[in-house]
């Protein structure tokens, strides 16, 4: 349920309200005056404040102003005697959500509180969705962890154990290997799954803007700060915050982030008031942070705070058996998004995918699959469509070296080269056919092994077929 702060200088009234709310399952904090209420709020923001208007030291209107300075989205209900209704109306003008007139029944109070809590929940949910919608990382769709190789099975088991904890997680791996997917999977399998998941790319923002995005800012904190704004840490309260590319943050911000991880509190930009926060941090990086620490670019104490629960994502080339499953998964995703029947790769296309080294890892495979799904005119995607895209990346394919057993040199007989019976073209043709046979007819790998282009290979084969020098099936 919700956390509610009750403020009243009369102990009997505080206890009466607290009893009513506790029976409804709420967590109730009590304060005898405004200063005590603000001190309690500095340790953690409530979901709702119920305060009396007439109090010594700091009246209800003054407390309301202080609360709105701390967090203008926390709903406040004021309790007022009949003779001070005008004051209660004034309180609503400056930001109170509602008021109840003493003496009031328990049901009357509960109805007002339920409305205020639902309003606060909707406001927060809307703000979280707005932040996620404006962040490329934050609005990324969630995909399951696909793969059945031993390394992926072990990774999933490790991930499940991490999800049960509340500790900070450091996910490492090459670009495109699925670090954010792992982070989302951890959140969804954790006790925090019902709370917000927010993400921010630390490399995409300047240092000053990143600080404001993480910790928020007060009105007037800098030019253009025309109103109070909550940061990611506040908005992710109770949930998970993903710090993508954590190695890219500067030294000053590293120190502030260290304090949040150590003390679970921070200050908004332009404020001296500390705010407590309950957020699980998951950080990702494609760099070697230990090397960054050794070279003085990353704080060692921050590294140790982040590296509580490490998770290393394997590159796709180390789990090639998962490529066919991943490829079909991505084709199915495109089909579902576009509202049409799913396509599939033929055997030659699968072979091409499985013999490629994937320098861009899973992200590159997903892009290739989406492109193929959209551009293929058939429900079955062939190798001829995708091979030029694999060549365009400039990455090596996995091939059989020609100087190893089973390569071209082992298939050519020295006598045919030395006795003068065959022309240079005959030898070239036999070398090409032998290489094609060695690579199961795969033109991309054969062209790579021969040191020629796929187009050149295709033209030669076409010429020999027209001259009936080779079979049409080659």
Number of domains: 4
CATH topology (fold) name of the largest domain: Rossmann fold
Oligomerization state of this entry? single chain
Low-confidence stretches: 399-417
Most strands sheet: 5 strands, parallel
The CATH architecture of the largest domain can be named as 3-Layer(aba) Sandwich
Helical proportion? Answer: 40-55%
Rounded to an integer in angstroms, the radius of gyration calculated over CA atoms is 32 Å
Number of strands: 14
- Largest sheet, order of strands side by side? 2-1-3-4-5
CATH homologous superfamily (4th level) name of the largest domain? P-loop containing nucleotide triphosphate hydrolases
User: How large a portion of the residues is in β-strands, by DSSP E?
Assistant: 5-15%
Distance, first to last CA: 71 Å
**Outline:** elongated
**What is the mean predicted local confidence, pLDDT?**
86
């Amino acid at each position: 349920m919700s956390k509610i702060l009750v403020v009243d200088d009369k102990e009997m009234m505080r206890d009466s309200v607290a009893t009513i709310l506790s029976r409804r399952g709420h967590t109730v904090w009590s304060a005898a005056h405004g200063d005590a209420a603000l001190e309690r709020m500095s340790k953690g923001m409530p979901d709702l404040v119920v305060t009396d208007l007439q109090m010594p030291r700091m009246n209800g209107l003054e407390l309301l102003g202080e609360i709105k300075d701390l967090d203008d989205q926390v709903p406040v209900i004021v309790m007022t005697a009949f003779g001070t209704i005008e004051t209660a109306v004034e309180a609503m003008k400056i930001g109170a959500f509602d008021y109840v007139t003493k003496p009031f029944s328990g049901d009357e109070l509960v109805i007002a509180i339920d409305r205020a809590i639902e309003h606060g929940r909707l406001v927060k949910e809307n703000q979280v969705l707005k932040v996620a919608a404006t962040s490329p990382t934050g609005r990324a769709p969630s995909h399951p962890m696909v793969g059945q190789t031993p390394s992926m099975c072990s990774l999933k088991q490790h991930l499940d154990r991490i999800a049960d904890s509340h500790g900070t997680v450091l996910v490492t791996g090459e670009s495109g290997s699925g670090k954010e997917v792992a982070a989302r999977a951890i959140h969804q399998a954790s006790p925090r799954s019902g709370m917000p998941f927010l993400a921010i790319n630390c490399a995409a923002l300047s240092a000053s803007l990143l600080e404001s995005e993480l910790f928020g800012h007060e009105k007037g904190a800098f030019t253009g700060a025309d109103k109070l704004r909550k940061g990611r840490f506040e908005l992710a309260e109770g949930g998970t915050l993903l710090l993508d590319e954590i190695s890219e943050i500067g030294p000053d911000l590293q120190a502030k982030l260290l304090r949040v991880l150590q003390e679970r509190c921070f200050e908004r930009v332009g404020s001296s008031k500390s705010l407590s926060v309950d957020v699980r941090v998951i950080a990702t990086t494609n760099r070697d942070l230990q090397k960054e620490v050794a070279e003085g670019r990353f704080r060692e104490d921050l590294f140790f705070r982040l590296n509580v629960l490490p998770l290393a994502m394997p590159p796709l080339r180390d789990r090639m058996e998962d490529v066919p499953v991943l490829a079909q998964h991505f084709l199915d995703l495109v089909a579902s998004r576009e509202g049409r029947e799913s396509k599939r790769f033929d055997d030659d296309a699968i072979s091409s995918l499985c013999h490629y080294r994937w320098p861009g890892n899973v992200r590159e495979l997903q892009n290739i699959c989406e492109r193929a799904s959209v551009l293929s005119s058939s429900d079955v995607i062939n190798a001829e469509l995708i091979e030029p895209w694999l060549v365009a990346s400039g990455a090596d394919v996995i091939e059989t070296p020609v100087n190893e057993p089973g390569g071209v040199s082992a298939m050519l007989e020295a006598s045919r080269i030395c006795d003068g019976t065959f022309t240079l073209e005959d030898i070239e043709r036999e070398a090409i056919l032998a290489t094609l046979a060695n690579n199961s007819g795969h033109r991309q790998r054969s062209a790579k092994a021969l040191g020629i282009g796929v187009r050149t290979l295709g033209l030669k084969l076409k010429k020999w077929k027209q001259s009936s020098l080779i079979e049409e099936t080659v």
